[in-house]
Amino acid sequence: QVQLVESGGGLVQPGESLRLSCAASGFTFSRYAMSWYRQAPGKERELVAAINSAGGSTNYGDSVKGRFTISRDNAKNTVWLQMNSLKPEDTAVYYCARQPLSGTPTYWGQGTQVTVSS
Known about the structure:
The protein is 0% helix and 48% strand. The protein is mainly beta. Strands 2-10-9-4-5-6 form a six-stranded mixed beta sheet, with no helix packed on it.
């Protein structure tokens, strides 16, 4: 079955960096676009970043553009989210997802908590 496992979350101070990882299995990873979403308490889940199947095209939410970078290695079945210049507003549970051609993802990881606080 499809499995997505996130890791790398934690507690950091504003301005610091984190890198999240997502290990994928149970499907042909190189055929699918992948994405990162996040959800903060009381907020709707929002798209953070997406990357196409080959890794040559990316998209970012306006709130993270210029600070976050999504990347992938199809030989390792892994997607990363590099988060720089973190702000308290970035505090959320971050989820890795398999991205369909249209609509919302069907398969999600368990999530990893990112807390940005001084």
